[in-house]
Amino acid sequence: MSFRAGSSGTVRVGKVPFFMNAFISRMIGSFQRVAPDIRVDQTYGNQPDLHADLRSGQIDLAICPTGLMLPGTDIAFTEILPARNVVAASNRHPLIQKRRPTSVDVLNYPWIAPLPGSPLLADLHSILLSIGMKEVQIRYSGGSLLSVMNYLQETDALTVLPHSVVFAYRTLGQIQTIPIQFPQPDRALGIMQIAGAPQIPAAEKLKRYIFGEFEELKVAIQRHENAVVWG
Predict the structure, then answer these.
(1) Residues 31 and 73 grouped into a single domain
(2) Does the predicted model carry a pTM greater than 0.85?
(3) Based on the domain organization, do 102 and 171 belong to the same domain?
């Protein structure tokens, strides 16, 4: 199988679940319309697992956030999107109807906990501590992005999601942002690969495609964020 032009071959990609489901899987589909002979094998993992998989040669690229844990000098990280989290709820949630919800308001509702090991889990605790909640009232945890969205539709629970994920599903009218300001993580989403190692041309082709897609998306995501009247 020839890799000379990067037009065929297999790319092994490791990704964090929520971001992968919201954006990357769709991008891989559109990528394969222009590169149908490139196969993509994807796996899920959080940052430490993806670092280990890169170092052991099990994956070619990792798409994940960095900030809490630096990858090390042997792993190159290229940013594709700054991280920003929001409090999200069903579009029928009582706080959506409130003109200016405050941080005190969210203390009255249960929460959905992100997947174990996810940076979002640490962010959830940080957010709730910043608004005065010492103990998190968790009603549901460990679900996939689809299960979290389905659960939100049936309850008045709240959760923490990347703003980019809420943006990705904005046209479905299922979830919305509760416009409350809180401390943001010093983190960015990007693509990791082993620094200085020869890269498979097919992997480089997919990487360049994803970067190109996000160059356009950054503007739209920022516009969506600016349209929110933050409390």
Answers:
(1) yes
(2) no
(3) yes
